[in-house]
TrEMBL record:
Gene3D superfamilies: 1.10.8.470, 3.10.20.30, P-loop containing nucleotide triphosphate hydrolases (3.40.50.300). Pfam families: MMR_HSR1, YGR210-like_G4. One of its GO terms (cellular component) is cytoplasm. This is OBG-type G domain-containing protein. It comes from Coemansia asiatica. InterPro entries: Beta-grasp_dom_sf, G_OBG, GTP-bd, P-loop_NTPase, YGR210-like_G4. It comes from the Eukaryota. One of its GO terms (molecular function) is ATP hydrolysis activity.
Length: 433
């Protein structure tokens, strides 16, 4: 089973969203230094590294993932990436490719906002010099907020009337209004709890005015679309000073509450150069350098004679990347961006097996020590129960025949047990009928 959740790249035109997708997946999305190069969303698969249980059980030589790969106990789990059309100020009112872009977002579980930190493109994505990107994080968030708030407010009066008449729970009424954004009721309840704890809005939604609705939408978005900000184009001359200014704005104040500013916190900002990563990957593929995504340096033929020799021009470009990106920031930042995005959701890796003696995918001879182990790994949301996972894995039909589950040591699992990493996340299901 491939990953079922989606990381979406958002940002103004020419920020580098498609370059990012190309840098971390095998996609070949069109890249161009003019706005709206992308119209239809591009998709690709990136890999999230985690510790594979094959290492703990001494089975690394038999670990054969069906999707992704495993290298000496480091498992690379596939994650879906989507790159959508650029967003410009006024998009929520239909400017640019506005609403179409926003609709694509409904499928995303987490957002990576790619910001052009170099100051060489204005807010429309057009080439310029000395543009200050300090407000880019804010206006993009405002557009998304405006889009959702506009839709919710349009239905508000009717919903509140029905809410009063039926005496429904506040979470049910609000869920009805935001379910279209792929939100579960539980998430709406959490948003309400957060609002209540801040004491800024009445607990009776029948009393809410437009300001309260907007406040709710803000908290809802923080929960529904956790966001990593990638300050991109760090290889460019002005990036440094722009990055420093943006970091200052989002610096957490010690002792303050945990509410986000513009949907962002300092911990979720990553520095990146999608272009450097694309270039390094290309040269590694062609045999000029040895380099793996996430590395802090590369190897050339000078250190390893088996690599192809490079010409002066390529050499200069590589030296530039080494000086401006790798030495200065420790990596190109693209792998780190994927990791931060997945970590934001707190996903739990689950390894479904048919056989708890050899961790194989077939229920045959339990004592067999041959064949592949830990073939499947699925990332699930925190709080997922054993039964919910069974349903996700085997479709509803099998869910009816659910007859229990066990983990390592043949320990029985309850249907409502929450799956936790390194505790009960290697699971064998029993099916009746
Ligand atoms: N210097 C530098 N240029 C970059 C980087 N990432 C992207 N670019 C350049 O920025 C331009 C726009 O890149 P795209 O990836 O097409 O941008 P996009 O955000 O997908 O743009 P739209 O599809 O128009 O919304 C291209 O010329 C890229 O080569 C980077 O890290 N550094
Ligand atoms: Mg694009």
């Amino acid at each position: 089973m491939a990953s079922s959740f989606v990381i979406a790249f958002v940002g103004k035109p020419s920020a580098g969203k498609s370059s990012f997708l190309n840098a971390i997946t095998d996609a070949s999305a069109k890249v161009g230094n003019f706005p709206f190069t992308t119209i239809e969303p591009n998709q690709g698969i990136a890999y999230y590294p985690l510790d594979c249980p094959c290492k703990r059980f001494g089975l690394s030589d038999r670990c054969k993932p069906r999707h992704g790969r495993c290298q000496q106990g480091k498992r690379f789990v596939p994650v879906r990436m989507m790159d959508v059309a650029g967003l410009v100020p006024g998009a929520s009112e239909g400017r640019g490719l506005g609403n179409r872009f926003l609709d694509d977002l409904r499928h995303a579980d987490v957002l990576v906002h790619v910001v052009d930190a170099s100051g060489t493109t204005d807010e429309q994505g057009k080439e310029t010099k000395g543009y200050d990107p300090i407000d880019d994080v804010r206006w993009l968030r405002d557009e998304i907020e405006e889009w959702v708030a506009g839709n919710v407010l349009a239905k508000w009066a009717n919903s509140v009337r029905r809410h009063r008449a039926t005496k429904s729970a506040a979470a049910d009424t609000l869920h009805g209004l935001v379910a279209g954004y792929g939100a579960r009721r539980e998430l709406v309840q959490r948003a309400l709890d957060r609002l209540a704890s801040s004491g800024s809005s009445s607990v009776d939604i029948g009393e809410w005015d437009e300001k309260d609705v907007r406040r709710f939408v803000g908290v809802f978005l923080d929960l529904r679309f956790p966001t990593v900000v990638a300050l991109n184009k760090i290889d460019m001359p002005d990036a440094d000073k722009n990055i420093a200014a943006i970091m200052r704005r989002y610096k957490s104040v010690p002792g303050s509450n945990s509410f986000l500013v513009d949907g962002v916190s300092e911990q979720n900002i990553v520095l990146s150069s999608a272009l450097a990563e694309c270039f390094l990957r290309k040269l590694a593929k062609q045999g000029y350098i040895r380099y793996e995504t996430g590395d802090d340096d590369f190897v050339t033929h000078e250190e390893d004679g088996s690599l192809k020799s490079i010409d002066d021009k390529m050499g200069r470009r590589l030296e530039n990347i080494r000086d401006l990106v790798l030495f200065r920031y420790g990596s190109t930042g693209v792998q780190e961006t994927v990791c931060r995005a997945v970590d934001l959701l707190g996903f739990v890796p689950v390894f479904p097996v048919k056989n708890l003696a050899n961790f194989g995918a077939s229920s045959g001879d339990a004592s067999s020590s041959s064949g592949a182990a830990f073939q499947d790994c699925v990332l699930v949301r925190p709080g997922t129960t054993v039964r919910e996972f069974a349903k996700k894995l085997h479709s509803v039909a099998l869910d009816k025949g659910y007859a229990g589950a066990e983990t390592v040591g043949n320990i029985q699992l309850g249907e409502d047990d929450v799956i936790v990493a390194d505790k009960n996340n290697i699971i064998k299901f029993f099916v009746s009928g």
